[in-house]
Amino acid sequence: MEDDVFQLRQLPVVKFRRTGESSRSDDDAISGEHEIQIEGVRSDLEAVELEDGAAVPKEFANPTDDTFMVEDAVEAIGFGKFQWKLSVLTGLAWMADAMEMMILSILAPQLHCEWRLPSWQVALLTSVVFVGMMSSSTLWGNISDQYGRKTGLKISVLWTLYYGILSAFAPVYSWILVLRGLVGFGIGGVPQSVTLYAEFLPMKARAKCILLIEVFWAIGTVFEVVLAVFVMPSLGWRWLLILSAVPLLLFAILCFWLPESARYDVLSGNQEKAIATLKRIATENGAPMPLGKLIISRQEDRGKIRDLFTPQFRWTTLLLWFIWFSNAFSYYGLVLLTTEFFQEGDVCNMSSRRKAVKAKCSLACEYLTEEDYMDLLLTTLSEFPGILVTLWIIDRLGRKKTMALSFFVFSFCSLLLLICVGRSVLTVLLFISRAFISGGFQAAYVYTPEVYPTATRALGLGTCSGMARVGALITPFIAQVMLESSVYLTLVVYSGCCLLAALASCFLPIETKGRGLQESSHREWGQEMVGKGSHNLGVTRSNSGSQE
């Protein structure tokens, strides 16, 4: 026995810390979190650095804890094969969403000419999609919080696929108006894929992965324009609507592979299912599971709007709502303005030309030319450098400053459009504007799931998405209707809105850079409340997040 104790005294106690991981607070050190102190045995910890993405060695995986949370498991398992598959699948959902959005800027001028629609009906055709998205965003968030992320996502995708294909057979304007509104209702649930995706990502990879998923959005917008170039002249807009639903069809087939969120299962009291999901991920990634019992920090009610307005999150929610509103208002406004500007050729004489044809403006129409499609494709490609810039600065400047910078650059470029510029300069300014406003959108998609706890994460993202749809709902009447009265007033509205959004980003009370996803709202600035060590039989132990 004495020999065993002697050998135990000689063994070093190893504490793993990932490179770049923020240190625990002084309170954590006092509470002795993750330490075991046995009388007569050395308790000093030898720090060992792990590179980003490196898994804890199997022999040391969770060596001193008999309990762990989902966050601990996700961090221990790390990023691997499972996350790569999930990235592609989530990307398909985003690609489909992007194509359904991008098609609005192509479909509007086509139906304007083919059905001789007045400008307000063209704007309404775009707005009705966002009405559906706005009205359903909170609903999908509630469904995801109450019945599971996977359930809400599957229903929304199948809904969008069905009505997306059906809208291609609309015989008259009223039919396509209703069917596109129902498509928008389904699209409102697609952002829940980000919630599901983020909850399977380790902290160090989360921001980069969510931003890289946005590459699929850019691919979707580019693919839609390329598809329009080949389909519109020969087959027409009906076939464009059908072919645009292909990514949705692929996702609907493959989404049955998706597991339910382990965080959601634990919150629902289904620990066995959560453990099975985590074991499946660990097996696919070839990494060890943490040892011990899976626990939750605190059981909470889920999906309550009032939780978004607790003292801790009240200002965050209100400011995020305005930020998301401004993002969608400006992004989709720019998409619609791009086709309007390219049809006119330049900004210089746009206002005077519109006044000259004011009497017949509502029924005058111009089809998009090959040159228009090429310039539209060029500005759409700007989303790729926008992603790269955001990817580079978001972990350097932080989420808040990244959003603020994106809004400010868009606002500045919008003001430059007030100067008399030709088509080439116009294309460059639209390119830069779209790159940064899409980057701001991506930063908001990173920040929002990080700032809310698991209990309200889907609802928080859903309500923010709903406010984004309000902005997208209003923007067609600015970019298509107000534009006929004043080009300059239209640009000032967009520039001013983004300037205010930049200020709102700076005033957000919580910065989520370098922070894990919250399991519970009962934390100080989103960190787990560290439990005090319990004392039992001469053994001092702290179980992080456990409930005694």
Automatic annotation (TrEMBL):
Keywords: Cytoplasmic vesicle, Membrane, Synapse, Transmembrane, Transmembrane helix, Transport. The chain crosses the membrane at residues 86-108, 120-143, 155-176, 182-198, 210-231, 237-258, 313-334, 376-395, 402-419, 491-510. It comes from the Eukaryota. It is a multi-pass membrane protein. Residues 86-513 form the Major facilitator superfamily (MFS) profile domain. GO terms for cellular component: synaptic vesicle membrane. InterPro entries: MFS, MFS_dom, MFS_sugar_transport-like, MFS_trans_sf, Sugar_transporter_CS, SVOP-like_MFS_dom. Its main location: membrane. The keyword rRNA-binding does not apply. It is found in: Cytoplasmic vesicle, Secretory vesicle, Synaptic vesicle membrane. Belongs to the major facilitator superfamily. This is Synaptic vesicle 2-related protein. The gene is SVOP.
